Fold this protein.
Amino acid sequence: LILAKQFPDQFRVVSMTRDPRGVLESFSKKGLQEESKGALAASVYYLYSLLCMKIVAREIPVHAITYEQLMTRPDGVLAELSEWTGLDLSEVRQKMAAAHAFPVEHVLTGNRLRHKGAVKVDCRGYKEPGASTLKNRLVSGVTRRVAKALRLIPS
């Protein structure tokens, strides 16, 4: 918020959220340098992140997208982002279309990904999120209902 207020004409916030099922599956992955998180911890983290972004959005304009939108219609989402930010994202669009890797250069890319060096975004192999275990299905369903009830995500 401080940067946005100091540089209002140069600062843009993009919020990318993800379906809770995808969050739970991602956080339960093993073999990464950080420990995997349980379903309840991932759910609390998800709701906390949405709440923080809601607070930020009260103070400054935020352009919201979802991971699922980016994966299913990358050209449209990147065109919207390009228009909203005023940035030329044509190189990003080309890299995504060719499933090239993007370097991971800072923590904001995601704590669990920062050790990988590069992240490949391949929209062609994208599948809608699904929770693999009964527990994850139940927790993600409750999490989604709570997020909608609190108006943290669209109904």
In short: Residues 51 and 152 are 6 Å apart (CA to CA). Residues 39-59 form the longest helix (21 residues). The beta strands are 13-17, 62-66, 101-103, 118-120. The longest strand covers residues 13-17.
